[in-house]
Amino acid sequence: MNNKERIELAGWAITRAKQAGADEVAVDIGGSRDIEIEYCEKKLEKLKESKSNSLSLDIYTGNKYSSHSTNDLKKESLGKFIEEAVAMTKYLTEDEFRALPDPKYYQGRKDIDLQLRDDKYEALKSEKRVGMAEEIERVVMAQSDQVISCTSYVGDSLSEGIKVHSNGFEGAVERTSFYAGAEVTVRDGESGRPQDSYFKSVRFLKDIDNLEFMGKEAVRRTLEKIGQAKIASGVYDMLIENRAASRLLYYLQGALTGSALQQKRTFLDGMLDKQIASEKLTVIDDPFIVGGMGSRLYDNDGMAAKKRVIIDKGVLKYFLINNYYARKLGVEPTGGSTSNMVFDYGTRSLDEMVRDVHKGILVTGFIGGNANNTTGDFSVGIVGLYIEDGKIVKPVNEMNVAGNQKELWNQLVEVGNDPYIYSSIRRPSLYFKDIQFSGI
Fold this sequence. Notes:
Blueprint: H1 3-19, E1 24-40, E2 43-61, E3 64-70, H2 75-89, H3 126-141, E4 147-165, E5 170-186, E6 195-202, H4 211-223, E7 234-240, H5 246-254, H6 258-262, E8 283-285, E9 308-312, E10 315-316, H7 323-329, E11 341-343, H8 350-354, E12 359-371, E13 377-388, E14 391-404, H9 405-408, E15 412-415, E16 430-438
Helix pairs in contact: 1-2, 3-4
């Protein structure tokens, strides 16, 4: 089934739902093909291909709302499915704020090609995928006799989908994605077995380049952990490597949602247009990056995507408010999710920032942890590298960082010039001053 056929089926489903008594209807129909490969000890451990099709149906009738999904797209089955969905909705409690977006929010959608689909996807053969995984493992195992094991991974996905609303919205998208990398374990004395990894995720196969670098980087990162141990509790400067920085940004993003705001579960309540972070923090939601992992022309509600500055030099400019919570709050919707998060990047690399640290910890990964969006409190375990007088001295682990986001983001003194491009969150390395660490 292609997207043209999906749109036709969505129109038929909307007509059936309205005939059954629905006031408004939203239909999402999608299909995907996913391939996963794992290679270990010169053997193919896993070769998995999966295909799926699904239809999601949102029913609005008499201020009542329900959502339903099915993998059976045959009309003879869908007819009964739709009738039962509408019938069940009528038993629910009314919610005056449930409705499709005002069609005015569909207007202004850009007519541009975001280049989210690799046209060469169908030409990729399994022999190529297996060969890539084999090559990554070969590179890893050749790096050091301390390497105990390696599992290399290669995978890709093709997804297609459409969204149709009964009040005039229609959209379609096709995307590809590819990933590759390795997980490595090395020997550390009699019992230590440090592990680490290196991966890339991209839209186009050509960007999965330099497999040798991938393998070497996975080994380098793992060997860095040999001898890791706790160090004394205390106040240290904290550098966070770009690939690890997403954890703290997810905590912040959780406090920006419309649901948290409406339910008074955010420490940012009342902080719109006020300083919530250091002036070094500027966060931009940019849906129009060509080939971006989060690029889009419309959001989950069908509203036209817009570029927006969420935090401007530490000042909060937008909450992430979808159509439903905008109605509950009595405000204009801004979109309940982000696309590509980009930053106002700095001028120095991570290595250059390390050279300025007198006593600090470079965080290369977070372990476990939790955050309270209402108070801003957070606590999370870390692994990383101890820095003294601008030089990396030794690896550390089993330490903990705890604090409050109201204070943490104001302790940000510098951001790197190194965006992590293999994610929809293109975060740089971050440099915080005077952070409390718990160790021994």
